Automatic annotation (TrEMBL):
One of its GO terms (cellular component) is periplasmic space. This is Blue (Type 1) copper domain protein. CDD domains: Amicyanin. Residues 19-118 form the EfeO-type cupredoxin-like domain. Residues 1-34 form the signal peptide. The lineage of its organism: Bacteria, Pseudomonadati, Pseudomonadota, Betaproteobacteria, Burkholderiales. It comes from Paraburkholderia graminis (strain ATCC 700544 / DSM 17151 / LMG 18924 / NCIMB 13744 / C4D1M).
Length: 119
């Protein structure tokens, strides 16, 4: 991955710059190909993934946003993906390339479960 500086002259706001940058990249960097990928948002709040189940297409991007005051992870049960720790008010995104069913959870809180289906 090549890290690029902000190319635009847009003002950099003080709001959680990293999160904003990630979201902006997620929402604006989608190539205008024939089958444009869709972005999906899963909110992590009150120790729950919401929505708990989500069906997407290959190449779609899912953004998990942690709205709790403590960290969580988004970790596939088979470790097909693993966010590692997502801090409070931070987010993590993932674009699955392979179809399949991916139950996942939070390694910090074993009661937290979600499921991702990729078509
Ligand atoms: Cu958690």
């Amino acid at each position: 991955m090549v890290k690029r500086r902000h190319a635009s002259g847009k003002s950099t706001r003080a709001c959680a710059a990293l999160v904003c940058a990630m979201l902006a990249a997620t929402l604006s960097a989608v190539p205008a190909s024939a089958a444009a990928p869709t972005s999906h948002v899963v909110t992590i709040e009150n120790m729950q993934f919401n929505p708990p189940t989500l069906t997407v297409k290959r190449g779609d991007r899912i953004v998990w946003i942690n709205k709790d005051l403590f960290p969580h992870t988004v970790t596939g049960n088979t470790h097909a993906f693993d966010s590692r720790s997502i801090a409070a008010n931070a987010s993590w995104s993932y674009a699955p390339a392979k179809a399949g069913s991916y139950p996942y959870g939070c390694t910090f809180h074993p009661t937290m479960h979600g499921a991702l289906t990729v078509q």
